[in-house]
Design brief:
Shape: elongated
Low-confidence stretches: none
Strand order of the largest sheet: 1-2-3
Number of helices: 7
Length: about 230
């Protein structure tokens, strides 16, 4: 048992004198401490380890306390009650309706896992597929690296670090024109299955931005990339 492990039923029984450990008394104590247990579970299980709740479905009927993962990858809990404080079931209500739902976690991936994410190829590929719940064996998000930058003249601090240019080169007009315009170069490319990409927004700009919002957290500063689809 870890130092932070907590079970309100065990603690309640241990702190109650043996003569008072009746079923009725322990049930009352468990009821009083249930909120503490819920908070512990939210922090040390959902936030630290991660959540495996089902995705939100507009047609599903939800009861008080049910939790789901919405499109923003946050965790929401059904918290709708009647005027008398009794939990009520409902359906057809999106999680952004705060009368029926309460956001309890900003990320369904546990902090223990997220701290291990970085920009290494295999790690970033795994993180992208995990974040977008693309867990099938095929049609994975993958990264193509080592995009080659060609036909560019490099100017260094001294001639040793600059590209070579002959005095009478036939290509001098190409490399050193009055107005230079070179194609955009990228260090790597994120390839996303088309079927997944179309679900990430209302248009291609929004869809690409959805990818970038996550990837930009881990891509090193100064490294550029583009997003494309396949097949």
């Amino acid at each position: 048992m870890a130092i932070y492990d907590y079970d309100n039923q065990i603690v309640g029984e241990q702190l109650t004198p043996p003569v008072l450990r009746t079923d009725k008394q322990l049930s009352w104590i468990n009821t009083l401490t249930a909120h503490v247990q819920n908070l512990w579970s939210l922090i040390f299980e959902d936030y630290r380890v991660g959540s495996v709740y089902p995705n939100f479905n507009i047609a599903t009927t939800y009861d008080l306390g049910n939790r789901i993962i919405w499109d923003d990858k946050c965790i929401y809990e059904a918290t709708s009650v009647t005027i008398l404080g009794v939990g009520q079931s409902f359906s057809g209500v999106y999680p952004n309706n705060t009368v029926f739902w309460t956001k309890v976690n900003d990320n369904f991936i546990g902090s223990d896992e997220r701290v291990k994410y970085n920009s290494q190829l295999i790690v970033l590929e795994y993180a992208l597929n995990n974040w977008f719940l693309n867990l099938t064996a095929t049609d994975q998000i993958f990264i193509a690296t080592n995009n080659i930058t060609s036909n560019l003249f490099l100017m260094g601090q001294t001639g040793t670090y600059s590209s070579t240019m002959a005095n009478s080169s036939l290509f001098s007009a190409y490399f050193m024109p009055n107005v230079a315009s070179y194609p955009t170069q990228y260090n790597f490319t994120i390839n996303v299955p088309l079927a997944l990409f179309t679900t990430l927004g209302t248009d291609n700009t929004n869809r690409e931005n959805t990818i970038r919002i996550f990837a930009d957290k881990y891509v090193l500063s100064g490294i550029t990339y583009n997003v494309t689809t396949y097949p």
